[in-house]
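Subject: for your reference before the review

Hello V.,

The reviewers asked for a structural picture of the protein, and I figured it would be easier to keep everything in one thread rather than splitting it across files. Below is the amino acid sequence we used in the manuscript, unchanged from the supplementary table.
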Amino acid sequence: MTAAPQDASAPADMPTLVVQDSQGRQLLCFLEQLIPLQGRDYALLTPVDTPVSLVRLPQSEAEEPEEIVDWSEREPILAVAESLLQEHNLSLVRSAATLTVTGDFEDPGLEEEDEEEDEIEEGEALDDEEAGDLFESLLDRPFYVGEEQYDLFVPLDPFFVVAVLDGKQARLVEGEDFAQVQPLLEAELERRELGELGD
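And here is what came back from the structure prediction:
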């Protein structure tokens, strides 16, 4: 089971930006909003391709699913996931901010999911009680690497990325920098939304 591509409802003429992270990885994104803040221009973006999360599944009821946030050290696991995706003519891409999947999502048996707006999130570990509502399995079945079981999940809510514009480049806002600007960006977005409602 899988979800529709992230850009399924995006206008064809929506501007795009290539975002780069601190490790040189890139991610092509749609520009959702441009937010001037503290003398800098921040961009609120959504990936063009479908973002996915690598998750280690619990081996017992006492454990919880674990989202692998630092997947750069899990190449053997990604290689197995990649081979399974290739069976469906899909490709796994090590992008900035997230893993992404590209390819034809309209094979038999694939489902589309509606997406709703959510708060800006840099990335959040799976919650055992809420995972079923927030994520959908991308693969037909989980897979094993050694004795541990893994799966790839697609977030059902939009996956937002924040970048700061520096000349012609868009740099991913990460770590402590993101933690500092996140509440300011959310306050500005809320102000804009209230302004639109008042018009």
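For the response letter, the relevant points are probably these. Confidence is low (pLDDT under 50) at residues 1-5, 107-118, 123-132. The longest strand covers residues 26-37.

Happy to draft the paragraph if you're swamped.

O.
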